[in-house]
Write a structure and sequence with these properties.
mainly alpha; Hect, E3 ligase catalytic domain fold; single chain
Length: 370
């Protein structure tokens, strides 16, 4: 769960004002609902008019949004609404989230009457993380505990260490970063193979999505049949051959079925339409993994790390090597097919996509742009 938070995704119940929707390219996609729009108004009333919570509750209720005063009190103090993640598992650390913010950080601070100086202190504190992008991403190969970072002033050096008391695993951060770049490079490839790789991957995942396309056709057929039934019922009612109560009963059922099927169909079509973008982005990132990681900010490094290795990595202090049991399926497939291309010296792949190591579409780890 901590790893998911570091990837920018919320853990636990969805906060009031948001709802979760299916997404093919994101691990978690949250949208602002009607109550969320009301919460935005509440923040603005608090920040700009300094209204009491009880008065804000009354105004919201007059606009059709009911939020209990006690709930509103907690909402005002939750940085989630300005795009940040604060969770008990983070032990006081604040992380940027991938959800859409309801308000700006400035409005959040103003609503809570927090001085600018306090905000600046938190910014200074966050800069400490810049030198330790691998913290909470690495686990100790000996005991499974996450590693953290620390500095030694008299040596002017920084280190990572296992956070378990009694486990004495620690290593210079510069050395660990170089070793990590070498490890990550095994999932990258020569940019000259971008075009043939995209072509082969699209062929692979096109065949893998045949089941989705088949299901899409089945749903479209069902919708067509139900529409015919609805039209038949409406015709009988207009001609006076069907009682009103029966008409309302059947028409209501048919309309509900159509709505449910259309939601399923839209979800599948969204997945299929996002596939090309999904592959193009992943191949582009994979071709320059190490440069992107090396030059990126703390947040970019973290996103890349969890993008390629969603479950984090283990570090073997004895051999000074990284290992992982879980790699983003698409990056794993890119790496596999790139090796084949290298062996063929740039020729197009002739392998059967159905024999690929990728076995099911649902195995694809979500990709979020960094």
């Amino acid at each position: 769960m901590v790893a998911k938070l570091y990837r920018g995704y919320w853990v636990g119940g969805i906060p009031t004002g948001y709802e979760s929707v299916p997404s093919y390219v994101e691990e978690q996609k949250l949208l602002i609902n009607k109550k969320g729009e009301g919460i935005r108004d509440a923040f603005l009333m608090k920040a700009n008019e300094s209204l009491a919570n009880s008065e804000i509750v009354k105004r919201l209720q007059a606009n059709g949004v009911y939020i209990p005063e006690k709930t509103l009190y907690g909402i005002f103090r939750n940085p989630f609404y300005c795009g940040l993640l604060s969770h008990g598992l983070l032990k006081g650390e604040i992380l940027p989230g991938k959800h859409p913010p309801l308000i700006s950080e400035e409005i959040f601070l103003k609503a809570n009457n927090i001085r600018l100086a306090q905000k600046q202190e938190s910014v200074i504190q966050s800069k400490v993380n810049e030198g330790f992008p691998l913290k909470q991403f690495i686990r100790c190969a000996n005991c499974g505990t996450h590693w953290v970072g620390y500095g030694v002033k008299n040596k002017n050096a920084t280190y990572y260490k296992c956070n378990k008391r009694g486990c004495k695993c620690n290593r210079n951060s510069d050395l660990m970063h170089e070793e990590y770049k070498y490890f990550m490079s095994s999932y990258s490839f020569n940019p000259k193979f971008i075009r043939p790789l995209k072509k082969q991957l699209k062929k692979t995942f096109f065949l893998m999505n045949e089941s989705n396309k088949k299901r899409s056709k089945e749903i479209a057929t069902n919708i067509s049949e139900i529409r015919k039934n609805l039209e038949h019922v409406e015709e009988k009612y207009v001609l006076g051959k069907l009682e009103k109560d029966l008409y309302e009963k059947f028409s209501s059922k048919y309309k509900k079925d159509i709505t449910e099927y259309e939601e399923q169909l839209n979800s599948i079509r969204e997945k299929l339409s996002n596939l090309d973008e999904f592959i193009d982005f992943s191949v582009s990132v994979s071709s320059k993994l190490v440069p992107l990681w090396s030059s990126g900010s703390y947040q970019v490094k973290q996103k890349l790390q969890f993008l390629v290795f969603p479950g984090g990595v283990e570090y073997d202090i004895k051999n000074h090597t990284y290992r992982t049991s879980r790699v983003n399926t698409l990056f794993n497939e890119i790496s596999r097919q790139a090796r084949v291309l290298e062996e063929k010296k740039g020729g197009l792949l002739e392998c059967n996509p159905l024999n690929s190591e990728v076995v099911v579409p649902t195995g694809i780890e979500p990709v979020s742009k960094v």
